[in-house]
Amino acid sequence: MSQPTLGFWKLTFAITTGIWLGCLAVAVTAWLIWPNLPPAVVTRLAQPSAGTPASHLPARSNEEMFQQYLQRQQATQEQQNRQIEKSEQEKRFSGAPCQFWLQQYQANPTEGNQRKMDGYCG
Questions:
Q1: Pair 121, 101: CB distance under 8 Å
Q2: Report field, pTM of the whole predicted structure over 0.70
Q3: How far apart are CA 115 and CA 109, in angstroms?
């Protein structure tokens, strides 16, 4: 019982032919699609990639970039602080003690009830 064997050169030729046919198929597909691409895509493909050398970018000093970084960090920190403060204030106002003393003050607006309401509601 002998198994059919494919000679080394036949196998090499078959692989090479497959690679060439694949390249040919890609080239023909690109050639057929190119005229039908929208102009914006063609323009973007014709421009140099985003990996252009840094010499084409405007020169900025390290100090200027560091200052911008610090400003962005400070703005982000301030926004986070405002969000935390807002959530804490919402927790205080929605809490049971605050609601209780708010009702007490509305029913009997005395100085003692106002102090208790201010203490629990902030």
A1: yes
A2: no
A3: 10
